[in-house]
Structures are given as structure tokens and as C-alpha cells.
């Protein structure tokens, strides 16, 4: 098994990923409808999609679909390697823990996305920030769910991994770094600060609400800044647009 192109189908999955991203990009360009690219982003697994890069329909294939294909292929590395393996160990604690993490992550992401969609579609919510449901306990609960489910997949894959196969940990690490420092939270925080930064209620929400992990606002608001930055991902780059005295 696993003799097609390479022993773990890495090259084959890369070719397939780029191929279907190109297919969906063409559909997007022709129909002027970007939801199909979100669907393309989750074909690797039935777990919610992170992709938001295809919002600019005029972008070239090289700057949209290739970037999307890279993240899909990278975060799917644990799945690719496990599916290519001949090893079939008995059920272990890591399997159970990993799939519990995956299920919880998927549940959190799905609920958070639905709650935000409902909020955005409500006329009363126009011009406001989302602070309902899970969004009371995290400023980005959908990303928390996304990160949790992919780390869960990696944990569930560990009983099968050997030697260099452990490098597939780069998949969830890549996704985590992407959301924490590049195209995820930083961009959304900057946008929200620009829209609502002058509103005292928003600044209070931001100061008392965790950026990622679900936590009670009453608890999070009382924690010292150094603790938030060290253990709870409240990095300075998320708050550069607000007055420093609030942090």
C-alpha cells in the first residue's frame, strides 16, 4: 500500500488538492459566487472550514487558490499519513481523547458560526459586534473550535505515527500560527477596533472577553495582563488600535 508516487501519497494529495482548488476557482470566477471555495476548503475532512481568502473574486488563481490549497494540504497531513499507513494498532487512549477533541471542536465551531450568522442577519445587530451565545465567552470561538478539532485529529493519529511521520504535527501548528498571527484573529481584531474602538462598551467587552479560549468574562476580566498574554493568547498585536491604558 502507498506505492502511488510516494509512500504516503503526499505528492498525490498535493496534486489533487491543487486540482480541485483550481476547479472551484474557475466556478467562482464564472458565477461570481465565492461560497463554493469555502466548500472546497473543507473537502479534506467533514470538519468546518477556515478559508476566507477567496472573498476577492478578481484575485488571481496564484494568490487565492494556491494559498488555499497549501493550507488544506498542510493541515490535512495527519489524515493523509494515517490513511496511507498499513499499521492498525488497537484502540488507545489517544484515539478517544483525539476524537473527543475533534467532536467538541466541530461542535463549538458549528454553533459559533451559526450564532454569528444569525446575529449578522438580524436588523437589530447592524453596526454592532457579536457578543451573543459563545461569543460572550470568546471573541473568536469559531477559531477556537477550528484549532481544537485539528489538534484532535493529530492526537488521534499519534498511535499510528513512527519516526519521520511525527513531522505531520506541522499541520496543526501551521493552522494555529496562521489563525493566531496572520490571516485570522489579527485581521478581525484590527477591523473590529477600527469600527468600534471608540465605543466604551466594546472596549469593556474586549477587555473582559478571551480572544480564543472559552472563559467566563467575570473571570477573564480579573486576570492580570501578563497572564492573559502568556497563557491565553492575548497578544499585543490584537490591541494596537486601542488606547494602551485599557490593557
Summarize this entry quickly.
This protein is mostly helical and 247 residues long.
How is the secondary structure organized here?
Elements: H1 10-31, H2 35-41, H3 65-75, H4 77-84, H5 93-121, H6 141-157, H7 170-182, H8 185-196, H9 200-208, H10 217-220, H11 225-231
Helix pairs in contact: 1-2, 1-3, 3-7, 5-6, 6-7
InterPro entries: UstE-like (IPR010721)
Protein name: Steroid 5-alpha reductase C-terminal domain-containing protein
Transmembrane segments: 9-31, 143-161, 167-188
Question: Care to describe what's here?
Answer:
The chain has 247 residues and is an all-alpha fold. The chain contains eleven helices and no strands. It has helices at residues 10-31, 35-41, 65-75, 77-84, 93-121, 141-157, 170-182, 185-196, 200-208, 217-220, 225-231. Helix 3 (65-75) crosses helix 7. The model is unreliable at 1-5, 34-53 and 55-62 (pLDDT under 50).
What are the key terms here?
mainly alpha; 11 helices
SSE succession: HHHHHHHHHHH
Q: Mind summarizing the main beta sheet?
A: none
Radius of gyration: 20 Å
Tell me the quaternary state.
single chain
Q: What is the helix tally?
A: 11
- Mean pLDDT equals 78
Note the gap between the termini.
Answer: 55 Å
Look at the helices and sheets and give the structural class: mainly alpha
Note the overall shape: globular
Strand content is under 5%
Helix content: 55-70%
Spans of 5+ residues with little confidence (pLDDT < 50)? 1-5, 34-53, 55-62
Structure summary, number of beta strands: 0
Amino acid at each position: 500500500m502507498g506505492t502511488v508516487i510516494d509512500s504516503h501519497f503526499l505528492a498525490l494529495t498535493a496534486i489533487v488538492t491543487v486540482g480541485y482548488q483550481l476547479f472551484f476557482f474557475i466556478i467562482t470566477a464564472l458565477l461570481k459566487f465565492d461560497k463554493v471555495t469555502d466548500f472546497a476548503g473543507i473537502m479534506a475532512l467533514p470538519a468546518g472550514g477556515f478559508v476566507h481568502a477567496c472573498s476577492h473574486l478578481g484575485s488571481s488563481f496564484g494568490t487565492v487558490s494556491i494559498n488555499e490549497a497549501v493550507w488544506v494540504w498542510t493541515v490535512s497531513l495527519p489524515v493523509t499519513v494515517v490513511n496511507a499507513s498499513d499499521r492498525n494498532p488497537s484502540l488507545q487512549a489517544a484515539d478517544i481523547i483525539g476524537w473527543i477533541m475533534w467532536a467538541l471542536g466541530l461542535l463549538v465551531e458549528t454553533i459559533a458560526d451559526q450564532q454569528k450568522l444569525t446575529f449578522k442577519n438580524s436588523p437589530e445587530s447592524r453596526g454592532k459586534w457579536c457578543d451573543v451565545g459563545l461569543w460572550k465567552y470568546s471573541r473568536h470561538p469559531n477559531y477556537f473550535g477550528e484549532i481544537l478539532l485539528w489538534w484532535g485529529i493529530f492526537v488521534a493519529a499519534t498511535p499510528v505515527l513512527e519516526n519521520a511521520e511525527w513531522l505531520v504535527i506541522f499541520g496543526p501548528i501551521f493552522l494555529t500560527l496562521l489563525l493566531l498571527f496572520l490571516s485570522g484573529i489579527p485581521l478581525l481584531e484590527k477591523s473590529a477596533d477600527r469600527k468600534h474602538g471608540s465605543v466604551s462598551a466594546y472596549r469593556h467587552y474586549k477587555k473582559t472577553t478571551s480572544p480564543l479560549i472559552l472563559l467566563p468574562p467575570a473571570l477573564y476580566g480579573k486576570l492580570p495582563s501578563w497572564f492573559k498574554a502568556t497563557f491565553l493568547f492575548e497578544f499585543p498585536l490584537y490591541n494596537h488600535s486601542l488606547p494602551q491604558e485599557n490593557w
